[in-house]
Amino acid sequence: MSGRTPVITACANGPLLVRGDVEILGDDGEPLDNPRRTVALCRCGASAIKPWCDGTHKLTRFSTEPPPSTS
Ligand code: FES
């Protein structure tokens, strides 16, 4: 690890971008192989390569905006 402070950026209508020195664990508690120094974590639930974002959020028109009020 390089000692870079982790920064997480919540992208509008998209993934969480993780930059910096951070270890990401799978649900078994084992470290995942981070493919890049900056990784995108899916938060739409539609990615085929979870926990990584594969861009599917664009196809599903995932929105981080709250739904319009119906009252
Ligand atoms: S946030 Fe990109 S595929 Fe889910």
Automatic annotation (TrEMBL):
The keyword Acyltransferase does not apply. Residues 30-63 form the Iron-binding zinc finger CDGSH type domain. Pfam families: zf-CDGSH (PF09360). Keywords: 2Fe-2S, Iron, Iron-sulfur, Metal-binding. Gene3D superfamilies: CDGSH iron-sulfur domain, mitoNEET-type. The keyword Iron applies. This is CDGSH iron-sulfur domain-containing protein.
